[in-house]
Amino acid sequence: MKWGPTLKQSPVAACALVLVGLLTAACDPADVKYTVEFQPAAPTTEPQPGTSELQLGATLFINRGFQWRDGLLHIPPGYNPSAAQPTPLLVWLHGGGGSARDAKALFPAADEFGVVVLAPDSRHNTWDGIDSPFGPDPRFLETALRYTAQRVNIDPERIVLGGLSDGASYALAIGRSNGELFKHIVAVAPWRLKPPGPIQGQPRILVAHGRDDNVYPEWHSRRFLAPGLSEAGYDVTYYAFDGPHKVTEAAADTIMRWITESRPGRSQPAAELDVSPGAAVPR
Does pLDDT of 180 surpass 90? Predict the structure, then answer.
């Protein structure tokens, strides 16, 4: 009796079997990961100021095509590896469908304020947890952070997790579940994404949103998200700026100023959260 084509005879059937296996593996609870395990150590490599690719990535199948997904490390020209004072690190997460290159809008302000920027690519079109189980992106974040620590003297008290759009939502979710590591969070034009695990630490949070945003409305951050975080006990500063769904030059300057002025004991109490349309980071 003939039952039909074998896998060797039917490439479609073979591909379907492989796809089922991949989906099954992706749903394996053992593969789910949301913690980011990292401890800064003394640098072992002399860094070159400027922007460089991480060379840690892989070619991945995304949106019906193959893409190289890696990331960028930007070291300000004024960085002094022999200085006793460690430097702040901003880990910047791009929006959905974006890439690490989108972080270049932050580099001029980072140079001015002396902030190192690590911008990884997501492992898929956007960050896991948004359209897939948590796991691949936290693993790559760990690898990218270790790579950065080999080159930069990182201030462990100012490791900042930030992002735009999907990246902002992801930063608020992952950041609050890793609050002992990421003591500061920057969310520009975020939407909704719950922390994937228990809350850790009490990170300071800057929520920023463009008044002309036509993707996620600014009023959602001003009326609901920022006040909700404040009511949950977080030290929140809200900043509304003139602009669309992007990081403007003024917003980049405000982000870097907020990072460099962030110190224990200098926090703005949650009870004093200003959520008025013109609220900005105090100078």
Answer: yes
- Which has more confidence, 206 or 63? 206
Domains and CATH numbers, the chain: 32-272 (3.40.50.1820)
Following DSSP, what letter does each residue of 182-195 receive, concatenated?
--EEEEES------
Of the two residues 34 and 68, the one the predictor is more confident about is 34
The DSSP line for 57-123 is: -EEEEETTEEEEE-EEEEE-TT--TT-SS-EEEEEEEPPTT--GGGGGGGHHHHHHHT-EEEEEPPS
Q: Which two tokens stand for residue 201?
A: 């630490």
Q: Are strands 58-62 and 71-75 parallel, antiparallel or unpaired?
A: unpaired
In Å, how far are 48, 232, 236 from 127, measured between CA atoms? Answer: 29, 25, 24
Instruction: Write the pLDDT tens digit of every residue in 226-236.
Output: 999 999 999 99
Q: What is residue 264's predicted lDDT score, i.e. its pLDDT? A: 47
